[in-house]
Amino acid sequence: MTRIILPLFIAAATAGCSNLTERLGMDASQSEPASASVEATAEVATPSATPPAASPIATAGSSAEALDTTTAAEREAATRAPASAGAALGSTVVSLGSATEPGLWLKTPLVDAEQPGRVTNPATGKSAAVTLIPLEGPATAGSRMSLPALRLIGASLTDLTTVEVSTEG
Question: Is the CB of residue 117 less than 8 Å from the CB of residue 130?
């Protein structure tokens, strides 16, 4: 029984090899050294067509720096210490919101109406002035923060970060 199943398995596993060689631009009868096949694989991995222009991420780049559309003046103004302390609203766990949505904002269930506010990262001590935008859900639910705001307070773009939220004084 094993003598029958093993050859069938090998035949099924190698059946798609001809398609693979065609995709890599190699002729099945052609024999290439290993380094040449690695180069062919690298060529296939590089996209030949440009992504659609409708995608801001594809056209602007995918790094945080490329997606951060705030100006140096906006960043400097947001990190300036407030004239007076605002009312503390509480703490919330934030994650990265839409990276293509511009501005310094925090969508949170801690507010009922859009208003100016400040977020502070207790881990770094950095804070930033943001627009607080209401988000449906219980006050214990998480919040979403803009990419520029996360960068200003020194928070990770991929981790969940607990921040202190207050109104702008």
Answer: yes
